[in-house]
Amino acid sequence: MTDFAQPAQVASPQPDAISFHTSTAAEVRLKRRYAAERRFKMYGVVAISIAVAMLAWLLWTILHNGAGAFVRTELRLELTLDQARLDPQGTGNPAAIDKGLYQELVQEAVYKLFPEATSRSDRKALREMVSPVAGVFVAAQVIDDPSLLGRTVELGVPTSDAINQFAKGNIDRDAPPETRPLTDKQIGWYDQLVGQERISRTFNSTFFTGADSNYPELAGIWGALVGSLYTMLVTLVLALPIGVAAAIYLEEFAPKNRFTELIEVNINNLAAVPSIVFGLLGLAVFLNFFGMPRSAPLVGGIVLALLVVSTIIIAARAALKAVPPSIREAALGMGASKLQTVMHHVLPLAMPGIMTGTIIAMAHALGETAPLLMIGMNAFVTEAPTGILDSSAALPVQVYIWADKPERGFAELTSAAIMVLLVFLVLMNGTAIWLRRKFERRW
């Protein structure tokens, strides 16, 4: 029986369906998404601009306030360094001469500049125009050049802090007399000295060579800088080997169980503990229990090592984990032991990351203040330490001490010390970035 094919059915034409993605509503939604994206980008730009503006304002404030600390106002005086008066015992050693005798010579030289000032009040006002420790600077020049003894020489001595600030424009001469530290008569004498070209501006080298002092013209950061270096040395010697060893054990050798998981959690939590807690620990354990020397870089270094060791462990573990497993497998396949594999192959490859994390941790330790305050490193120390057991200050603590003093000169020193501290922090972080880019390997 013959089959007859059915005729094909022709579909009736349908109107074009409107796509969900091409409709007018879809175009409106697309425009809204693009607008939301543009707003989000604008919010980010505004946030970054505000942050940059605030940072620039902060840096400008520090630079503006601290620039004056690098300049000192000096008064040129003719001093008769009579050896019979200064060295009546005839020791011949300028360092053995009483500094007070030099100060008397400075005051007498100032009196000679204004012979009409004969009253006690006028002479007191004249004495207040030069630094009360000007004789120390004269003594330092005589010690450097003993041939000055027995001669009449012209030497520059620092002015008082009030004259120094007035010369820098930080004191308004038109302000009411009761609101400024200088009298009208002292301002008149200052103008006469300027006319006689006896007032000069010189580089304040004492800021880099001196230690702490009650007088801003005699204060410097050298003592605090040396104390910070000793403290960082102790911190590095303790924290680096302990942190790296702990990271190697946890990452390469420790079994994965509840105990090691508990250790890892505690290490991560330790990095978030407030720094003052470590200061309290150092005060209770190292000072009160073990009786270690107070205000010493040794104790400060131990406390800061406890503070940053968790950071080093975390950074070192991340660097070890970044080494490809194929390195370990190849070494083990060639017959190396587990220890040889780690020490000869894995650790060298992870060392750039470890050093980067260590430098960042040390930069963190350099800027810490609270732990050092708790162990007494805010003591008044007028000489640079010669070892890790000597009493010392540190740069951030020195900033804290100077910021608490009322004299305008210490405000300049505070900002200048912050500038020095920022330079160290930038250099350390820059070194970390350089090491990472130079030695980092792309696997």
Explained architecture:
Helices cover about 60% and strands about 5% of the residues. With about 450 residues, the chain is mostly helical. The chain folds into two domains: about 70-205, no CATH class; about 220-440, MetI-like (MetI-like fold), CATH 1.10.3720. The N and C termini lie far apart (about 75 Å). The mean pLDDT is about 90.
Summarize, please.
Helices cover about 60% and strands about 5% of the residues.
Describe the secondary structure blueprint for this structure:
Elements: H1 24-66, E1 71-80, H2 83-86, H3 99-113, H4 120-127, H5 134-144, E2 152-158, H6 161-167, H7 184-195, E3 199-203, H8 206-209, H9 222-253, H10 258-270, H11 275-289, H12 297-321, H13 325-333, H14 338-366, H15 370-374, H16 395-403, H17 408-439
Antiparallel strand pairs: 1-2, 1-3
Examine the coordinates and then state which fold CATH places here, giving the name of the CATH topology of the largest domain. MetI-like fold
Tell me the name of the CATH class of the largest domain. Mainly Alpha
Order of strands across the biggest sheet? 2-1-3
CATH architecture call of the largest domain: Orthogonal Bundle
Low-pLDDT segments, ≥5 res: none
Beta content: under 5%
Distance between the termini: 75 Å
Our count of helices gives 17
